Amino acid sequence: MSVARITEVKSSSKISFDDAIKEGLKKTAMTINNLKAAWVGDHEVLVDNKGNITEYRVLLKVTFIVND
Q1: CA 63, 46, 19, 41 torsion: positive or negative?
Q2: Domains of the chain and CATH, by start
Q3: Among candidates 9, 23, 17, which has minimal Cα distance to 46?
Q4: Which tens digit of pLDDT belongs to each residue from 29-61?
Q5: Taking the mean position of all CA atoms in its chain, how far away is CA 62?
Q6: How many alpha carbons fall within 13 Å on the CB side of residue 25?
């Protein structure tokens, strides 16, 4: 029987939401073994005083299998 765990990871990118997701998963996979899935939760942008987007952020719920 396998046991899975879910943890939240917040990731950011200056390029796009897609890049924030990819980079967040890449870095997470470097520290968490048996990564299986991710649910993309909240999206957030930071803006400057002119309304230009300066950073894209995502909240990921990452699922991984716990080692026996």
Answers
A1: positive
A2: 4-65 (3.30.1660.10)
A3: 17
A4: 999 989 999 999 999 999 999 999 999 999 999
A5: 7
A6: 16
> Phi and psi of 40, rounded to 5°?
-85, 115
Place of tokens 């952020």: 57
Cα distance between residue 27 and residue 36, in whole Å: 14
pTM of the predicted structure, to 2 decimals: 0.86
- Three-state DSSP at 25 gives helix
Q: How far is it, in rounded angstroms, from Cα 50 to Cα 15?
A: 18
Separation between Cα atoms, residue 45 and residue 52, nearest integer Å = 10
Cα-flanking dihedrals φ and ψ of residue 8, to 5°? -100, 140
